[in-house]
């Protein structure tokens, strides 16, 4: 097909049977991603960035009226790169150490759509990826392409105030064993009622689901727990999401009481991944 320019802002494609005409804009009007004033730049392996995004981005909100939740907080402090996502009911926080250090703390909010696209583009290789930030956009340089996105202009919630402190009931569980138990119990869950009731006693965790038809499923697993008995309920889908995100073999769950949020982390003490889930009413 032959395109011919007609005037300053239109193209037409003539043929023996049809005529197509469309309007265009000058290439000078295309956004200039290279013209942004980038104030910070870091370099890290693709695999590290992909893992950081995969292990936190699932907690982002989707089409929330609080637009600043429909994205991922990317924060730089010293030599630490941190990502935080929350939808108001759960929170995921991840961090890693970078080679370069900044003197002032800085943060941006990357839109959900850009995070999902980055998750598709990144791979598990050790090839470096360069990330540059400005006040209005982010640029990610991969070996074979450059990716840019506008940022969300808003104030992300103070996530540090959400992290539970002082919990006195600590459980260590095999991640895969717990995930399988919750998955089996979830078979009887309905779309409207996805709660799972967790009962803790010495050395034992019991997960119970009761649906609207009063059908029930109960799963028991052995855990490391020596605290007082506790009964607490959560959205089962939220627990499964974070268990799918944690790569470690064991998880630590810290509780205060049935009305307080739970803090869930890998069982080691590095605290590079932290997950907070709000309880549901019993």
UniProtKB/TrEMBL annotation:
UniProt signal peptide: none
All copies of domain DNA polymerase III beta sliding clamp central, residue ranges: 44-158
Example of a GO biological process term: DNA strand elongation involved in DNA replication
Annotated GO MF terms: 3'-5' exonuclease activity; DNA binding; DNA-directed DNA polymerase activity
Annotated Gene3D superfamilies: 3.70.10.10, DNA Polymerase III, subunit A, domain 2
Pfam families linked to this entry: DNA_pol3_beta_2 (PF02767), DNA_pol3_beta_3 (PF02768)
Similarity comment text for this entry: Belongs to the beta sliding clamp family.
UniProt name for this protein: Uncharacterized protein
